[in-house]
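## retry 2 of 3
previous attempt timed out at serialization; input unchanged, resubmitting
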Amino acid sequence: MKPGMRFAFAAAALVSLTAAVTGMLIYASHPGSNFYLIGWDELEHRSFAEMLLHGGSGSLAENAQAGQALTGSANWGTGLVIALCRYLFGSELAFIVLKWALHVLAGWLLYGLLKRYRGETIAAYVTLFFLLYPPLLLYGASFLKDDLVAALVVIAAAAVDRRRFLAAAALLLLMIAIRANAVMFPIILIGYLRRARLRYVLLAAAIPFVAVAMVLPESIKSMADIVLLSPGTVAFFAAKYLLGPLPTNLFSYDTESAWLFPWYTLSFLGILVGLLLPGFYSSLRANWVWILLLLAACLAPYLPYVKQLDIIGPRQFATVGWLYFLLFYERVLRYEFRLEPRRAAEDTWSPAT
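## retry succeeded, writing output
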């Protein structure tokens, strides 16, 4: 890592630390279990941590089932991590510190991965984007899981790339307990970086899919309801997901929207400007398979419920927003926002002829 990049990495880590410390100070000034910074599901995670430490049956398996009933899904994994932080360090605020440490570690590993497969220029841009991505900084200051999942995706992908399969398996199991569909993201990332053949990627993805089916059979059954949705409905929510919170979620004026209003506005404008860059379309042409795979993995768990509740929004996007940034703008980043050099025409005569 060059000295300039080291300085930028350290500055980005300091910015993320500032966000985490700010969140800790806010929670410290609001003692009690009924306060949340962004989302009400923070209370669910903390309630399950309380159940593990001071209630429940004493059996992790039985408490996990109770936690699943409490949260309505496998989100009890976040509560488990919070409980471990409370048990080891005496305060649930240690969970925020842990998330910050994993965020910085993930940034370091992401830089190494991208430098190996895509070069130093792309590695620098994407790593800084990951470390300074405003939604992840905000979620890192709370008890939400989205930034934790983003970090675990990168760490698990690095473990697979380095053939640390035992560590990767443990991380994937933890990810199933936190957000089940996230187990697909490291496989997609590694497949994209290595330009693996699609059939091998799908074969590798079958292993965590079977694990999810064994742990959460009901969630797999509910995904079958996707076939009942019209193509127009699927296309609408896919576009809403990719474009971020606009136009439906931005003006809800909840805590998250109020804090991230400038970012949401700038990022939406950035998406529109990106449509004018030739490198965007060459990236799309090169990576469309990986974009569709990632989109399917991201949306499949939520589409069956869109008729009852609109739960597809920026928080689902933020976990892998950095990866979409890489997939959609790889060629733009490669040439550092300059126009791509033209390729020689196919009918050009070679000197030998």
